[in-house]
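Colleagues,

For the teaching module next term, I've prepared a clean inverse folding example: a structure given as tokens, and then the sequence designed for it. I'd like students to try predicting residues themselves before seeing the answer, so please don't circulate the second half yet.
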């Protein structure tokens, strides 16, 4: 069954091991925007299927709006991260920002696609459950407002910049 944003308001609860695939299905269904909020740049955002979906969305249109906000980047800087490399290759399409101290919340993990589709994994990396919905989940508008407010206060991390010699 294809996942189409705006067509179906069925709430799905994927298994924990399907988190990357569920997030990728939301990303692939997006046409205009994807806002992703994660506690850290970790295995979920480094998952090949997630990064491939982000790349496909990023290349689909010059007007696509991909915003990724995170609290912690420590492991990603120390060990390298697929998403950071992708954002460096597509800097005009994928924006990464780090939350300011007051906005950091290790429980927040969600993605909003085209202002209506929602992937939510509160409590990541050990969420009680995963939610995936293509349309009209009541939490999506509230989370979108929260994301937008925090995005305005977030900053570009100088540690993620590539040093070219």
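(Answer key — instructors only)
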């Amino acid at each position: 069954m294809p996942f189409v944003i705006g067509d179906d308001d069925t709430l799905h609860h994927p298994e924990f091991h399907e988190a990357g695939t569920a997030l990728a299905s939301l990303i692939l269904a997006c046409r205009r925007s994807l806002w992703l909020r994660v506690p850290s740049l970790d295995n979920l955002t480094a998952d090949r299927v997630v990064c491939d979906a982000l790349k496909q969305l990023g290349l689909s249109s010059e007007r696509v709006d991909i915003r990724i906000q995170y609290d912690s980047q420590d492991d990603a800087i120390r060990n390298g991260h697929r998403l950071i490399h992708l954002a460096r290759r597509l800097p005009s399409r994928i924006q990464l920002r780090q939350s300011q101290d007051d906005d950091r919340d290790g429980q927040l993990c969600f993605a909003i696609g085209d202002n209506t589709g929602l992937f939510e994994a509160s409590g990541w990396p050990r969420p009680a459950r995963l939610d995936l919905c293509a349309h009209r989940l009541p939490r999506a508008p509230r989370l979108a407002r929260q994301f937008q407010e925090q995005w305005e206060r977030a900053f570009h991390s100088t540690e993620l910049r590539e040093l070219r010699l």
